[in-house]
Amino acid sequence: MVIRIIENQTFDMERALYGSEGVLVKSCSFDGPADGESAFKECSDIVAENCFFNLRYPFWHNNGLKISGSEMKELCRASRQRKIPRLYAIAVGDNAQGGTLIIGRNDNGGVKGIHNAKKLLEDIPNKIVSMMNIIADVNLIEENGLESIEIIVDSYPSPVNYRGKYYYRSGSTMQEIKGIELLKFLYEKQGKTWDSVPIPGETVDSLSKEALQEFRKNLFIKSG
User: Helix axis angle, 117-132 relative to 88-95, nearest 10°?
Assistant: First the structure.
């Protein structure tokens, strides 16, 4: 039941509407320099109409959530409902052991259906190819008069990035791979280890003769 209406406002603070109940949000923008996340956290009976979302995790642990005519940018990540799945989830499967992503089912596996299945069957494969240069099987599933979409993701032998970033699934979370872990991941995908890869800018002349002699000496001692 709607108790309060919020219309034509902009929110960018952390947990801007935390704990709200019975709120209709119309033509509002969740974006701005404060870059706050989880605008709707632990809320209930929320209706969002014609809103724009460009902040992380806009809906977190909510009950009775309805969204219509709204736009969610890539920054949102892990938003509770979305028209097209965040494509980094596809990259996650490619970089791990593969898997299946289903749109139109609830957390218990029950079919709730989607209204734009035919359009998604065209949009999703095109976006996957254009943004990640890979091909995934996208299938329409009909059950009890309701439609859902199945995206089958294979494990790729080469690394798959999404907008220049690499992701991997760890437990039930999706993690961006950075720094040393990213180098390790890229080497493993190529069948290499860190000690088999040349260091850029270094030559034989950079090696220390004393260090090499010490290495040979220790190697001789250990080998008996």
Answer: 60
Q: Tokens 């989830």 sit at which residue?
A: 89
Q: What gap in Å lies between CA 212 and CA 205, rounded to an integer?
A: 12
How far is residue 27 CA from its own chain's centroid?
26
Encoded amino acid at 206, one letter: S
CA angle 114/120/125 to nearest 5° reads 145
Compute how many other C-beta atoms are within 10 angstroms of the C-beta atom of residue 43.
23
State pTM to two decimals: 0.42
Cα 190 from Cα 7, distance rounded (Å): 52
Sign of the CA dihedral running 59, 93, 114, 107: negative
Complete edge-to-edge strand list for the sheet that includes strand 52-53: 10-11, 29-30, 52-53, 71-72
Q: Mind listing the pLDDT tens digit for each residue in 93-144?
A: 455 556 677 777 766 677 777 777 888 888 888 887 777 777 778 888 888 8
User: What's the CA gap between 72 and 54, in Å, rounded?
Assistant: 6
Contact (Cβ atoms closer than 8 angstroms) between residue 116 and residue 171: no
Phi-psi region of 145 (alpha: psi -120 to 50; beta: other; left: phi over 0): left
